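Dissemination and training. As part of the outreach component of the grant, students in the summer workshop were shown how a complex can be specified as a set of sequence lines and then modelled as a single object. The example used during the hands-on session is reproduced here so that future cohorts can follow it. Participants entered these lines:
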Amino acid sequence: MRCIQVLLISLLLVLVQVSIASETGLVCVAPVAKPTTGTKSLANPSGGNQVQSYSVQIDVRPPIHVAVDKGIAIDGLSLSGKHTVQVKGDSKDITSFHFRFNDYGSHNLCLWFKPLYETWSLTPARGHGKTCTCHESNIR
Amino acid sequence: MAVLRRFVIVYGDKGLGVHNAGSLFEWAAKTHKLEVMLGAFPGVPPSRGASIEVFHVSSVPDLVQDISAGNLAYLAYFGHSWDSWLFIGETASRGSNLSSIRSETEAPVTDIPKEKFLPNAQIRLFGCRAGHGPAPIASNLHAYLEVTVYGYAPPGVHYSRRTRRLATVSERSHNRTLTKITLELAPIHGLYRLTEPQDSGGFR
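and obtained this result:
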């Protein structure tokens, strides 16, 4: 009886570990509007921006082209370990950095662009509402 | 007869979309008023006997109006900014931005009446990168008004919770490093403590 109990507990532990290992993270890359004409201001944050299109690459996956009208999800990312993000604008390096999902306390992250400052931010997707909405059909 | 010195703290519009800072600028400005009253912000002139006022501004003309009484010993700005601009207003109108030129949405620093400032007055710009670049807005203000102006220089300025007291930048990041991407800069000092729960939205 005791042997069976030990066996069941061991099996449970294995199942839990397998469950954890199978979970993955997702980064939703928010759309980026095209540059606009006119002076940059709060009312026209994309005014005068130079970069016409961006691409994002995570680790060694193929780069994805950032859309102007919808978010694109990069799914199946390991929750353990460090990931590398590279952002290019018009094929030129813009920024790169590392991140870990553990640092954000979330499996769903949002990579989004601030046109006023032409900078990128990575934050938990929770609470980003319209900024970071990635549908299943846009999973890469 | 002694001059009644004025300490004026202004905060700009929240911003739109992903740049919407919610109430953060207002809270930071009001927190700073307390700091000024208590002499708790290093480097800010003593405010004893002075009036300390907080105003919301949406344009350069608004700012000019709020300093029109003169006798300015101290002026602080909380809001959006970047390099050569203060992005004050979120509607497209004359003077939405403070910069070095005049355009449909920009007003130059020369629109700010220098005679309203007392000798040895000080200006602090609590916005992103107002001290950065080849011609930062902080430098332009200093050159024209001939008063001391502080602005954050790179690596940058970023209202973030990493420093002890911060008017937050981005929304829910709380005590996390706000991503390696953002131009997070080392502020001159720790900044502002929020006096109310953090609002949503982000700003820089």
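DSSP finds one helix and eight strands in chain A. Students were then asked to discuss how this feature might be tested experimentally.
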